[in-house]
């Protein structure tokens, strides 16, 4: 309980990304990342979904080029990456859409897709007096030889970086100005 209160207090004092592995075990983990963005909910949604190839890091792609990333916010569509010549990767499958409010996708993002795991990633866009609070929650479960708890901090870091880049992209037009504390 103290940890949750401390995290909430720190978030209230800061506009940086709140990142936390909320639970972790050998068979799974949950990571929650949240940030306040100085823009409206609809604007934040459109940038997150339609411009994912502009703010996602090329370091976290198969092709090395984030401009190949796309999200189609329709049921059973995908968070995909084109590789050219009819090749590509489905990183996550869209399983719930409530435009400007919530996007839920299932699957194993990045290297998790190569493991015996599955997950639910939920992007929430919440009205706040200071703009839009955006929360990415990713719950992973399944099997990994060395246990999933060992990779939870790395996954949390990647998701936190993505959210910081989204914030920077929306507020400055440049995701490279992102800072994660």
Summarize the structure.
By secondary structure, the protein is α+β, with helices and mostly antiparallel strands. Helices cover 26% and strands 39% of the residues.
Figure out the total of helices: 4
Q: Helix and strand string, N-terminal first?
A: HEEHHEEEEEEH
Helix percentage range: 25-40%
Find the structural class using helix and strand composition. alpha+beta
How are strands sequenced across the largest beta sheet?
1-2-8-7-6-5-4-3
Measured on Cα atoms, how large is the radius of gyration?
16 Å
- Unreliably modeled segments: 1-15
Mass-distribution shape: globular
- The first-to-last residue Cα distance is 22 Å
Strand content: 35-45%
**Average pLDDT reading:** 90
Compute the number of strand runs.
Answer: 8
Largest sheet: 8 strands, antiparallel
């Amino acid at each position: 309980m103290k940890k949750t209160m401390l995290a909430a207090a720190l978030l209230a004092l800061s506009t940086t990304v709140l990142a936390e592995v909320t639970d972790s075990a050998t068979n799974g983990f949950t990571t929650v990342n949240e940030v306040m963005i100085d823009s409206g909910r609809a604007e934040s949604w459109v940038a997150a979904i339609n411009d994912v190839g502009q703010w996602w890091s090329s370091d976290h792609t198969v092709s090395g080029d984030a401009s190949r990333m796309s999200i189609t916010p329709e049921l059973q569509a995908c968070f995909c990456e084109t590789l050219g010549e009819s090749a590509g990767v489905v990183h996550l499958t869209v399983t719930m859409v409530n435009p400007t409010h919530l996007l839920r996708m299932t699957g194993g993002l990045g290297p998790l897709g190569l493991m015996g795991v599955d997950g639910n990633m939920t992007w929430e866009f919440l009205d706040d007096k200071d703009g839009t609070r955006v929360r990415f929650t990713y719950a992973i479960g399944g099997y990994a030889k060395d246990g999933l708890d060992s990779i939870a901090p790395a996954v949390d870091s990647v998701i936190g970086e993505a959210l910081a880049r989204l914030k920077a992209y929306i507020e400055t037009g440049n995701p490279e100005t992102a800072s994660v504390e």
